[in-house]
Every structure is written in C-alpha cells, then in structure tokens.
Amino acid sequence: MDSVISGLLLILITTLIIVFAYYITNIVGKKTKKLMDGRYTQVLERTMIGLNTNITILKINKKIYIVAMQGKTIEVLDRIDESLWDFKAEKEDGFINISEDITSYLKKRFSKKS
Asked: pTM for the whole thing?
C-alpha cells in the first residue's frame, strides 16, 4: 500500500514539475520577445537556406530590407518602402501564408533590375 501511494505521489510531482516548467518557459519566452522587439525594428521573416546561410526580411523605420546572412557576412539584397509591401496574408489553419506573394514580388523586383 505504501509503494502504491509513493508511486502515485511520484507521478503527481513529476506532472506538476512538467506543467510548472511549461508555464515558466512560456513566461520567459514572452518576456524575451518583448526585450528583443525593438521600437523601430521588426523581423518579418527568416528563411534558412543552408547550414549557416539565411535570408531575413526586416522592417526598420517604415522600410523593408531583404538581407542575406552567411556566417559573419551580411549583405543587403534589396530595400523597399513599406507602402509597396502590401501583401495580403491568408490564414490557413491559424498560420499566415504569404510566401507566394513574396516570391512573385521578388521575381518582379529582380527581373526589372536585370
């Protein structure tokens, strides 16, 4: 009888620790996001291309920057006014999907340059 009670107590304590860790992680994540979000800067999208290469879309002071980052190298690929960045986001299962709009915009933008 004592082993059953101690087993149930162990399961209860383990469950409480997991629930507590989950809520603490959520709280810390929200606080960190508030600290990381700047007043004038915002990361709109980040896509990994390789192991240490990614393309990031940043919004800084009403301008949109498309930046390529590889290791310690950062290169600005394009700068766009916020007024031209008028993608219509569609909700699919709670997630926003604007990748097709971004792809078509980038194709138009870079085909004009060449």
From this structure: 0.49
